[in-house]
Write a structure and sequence with these properties.
Blueprint lengths: L1 H22 L7 H23 L2 H29 L4 H28 L5 H29 L5 H27 L4 H22 L15 H28 L1
Length: about 250
């Protein structure tokens, strides 16, 4: 029962977040983020309706809809990348293309998976969700490393977006790891921890995105693109040396 109360409260928070986005005209500024919120509203509403009217449909619909929200969740990462790295066109373009590439790969897999393996086991689905969350965690950690290393300033909107989604991903990863080992014994805990952690993220987003707060204008030069170019050059040099070494070894 507590699970459904938490999800019902979450649905109210989701509608509040979307409504405030309309009122403050934030949707056109952060449209990837609000597409994700719209998908979560649909997921939550369908799950609550299924539980009240046809409980047998809940397990059948849960994972396909959860997979859809996992895919749209990558929109938040694109949103963060686009806004945080906006003053640095080269770095932003690289991050956007790499992010879209990862998103495209995940989306393709999500569309083809039901055709290749229409009868996934519960354990396989949990492992798949854990892998997707791991990729999201790597994205956020990489972005935070760049932000802290170069001292890139962020406004309240981006800080809240990163904090809320990072908290949810971290909680999901820990829960999924424990669930994969503990099995069904962890289900009762999972049923409370998962929606509760998301409700906390929703509260963070509602506060952080109450009004538009742009990122501050950079007050110092950041040679991010030059560093990236140097990294690419060094990587090419190392790969060239490895190929040369392998070629010599093959001829010996």
């Amino acid at each position: 029962m507590s699970r459904w109360l938490i999800m019902g409260f979450g649905l109210l928070l989701e509608f509040s977040l979307w409504g405030r986005g309309l009122q403050a005209r934030l949707i056109k500024r952060h449209y990837f983020f609000y597409i994700y919120i719209a998908s979560v509203i649909f997921f939550t509403a369908v799950m609550l309706l299924a539980n009240w009217t046809a409980p047998s449909l809940y397990d059948r619909w849960y994972w396909p809809l959860q997979l859809a929200t996992l895919v749209t969740g990558y929109g938040i990462l694109l949103e963060i990348l686009n806004h945080v790295l906006a003053p640095y066109p080269g770095a932003e373009r690289f991050a956007r293309f790499s992010g879209l590439g990862a998103f495209g790969a995940i989306l393709t897999f999500a569309l083809l998976a039901p055709l290749v393996a229409p009868h996934w086991s519960r354990g396989t689905i949990i492992e798949f969700e854990r892998d997707l969350r791991s990729v999201q965690a790597v994205f956020i950690c990489g972005l935070l490393a760049v932000i802290f290393y170069y001292g890139i300033g962020m406004g309240r909107n981006m800080k809240g977006m990163i904090m809320g989604y990072g908290l949810y991903i971290l909680t999901s990863l820990v829960s999924l790891a424990v669930r994969s080992y503990a099995g069904t014994r962890f289900d009762q805990v999972w049923d409370v921890v998962q929606p509760l952690s998301f409700d906390i993220s929703l509260v963070i987003w509602l506060v952080a995105l109450w009004s538009y707060c742009p990122n501050p204008t950079p007050d110092h030069m950041i040679h991010l693109e030059e560093d990236y170019g140097a990294l690419v050059a060094r990587t090419k040099g190392v790969m060239g040396a490895i190929r040369a070494y392998i070629g010599k070894a093959a001829r010996a």
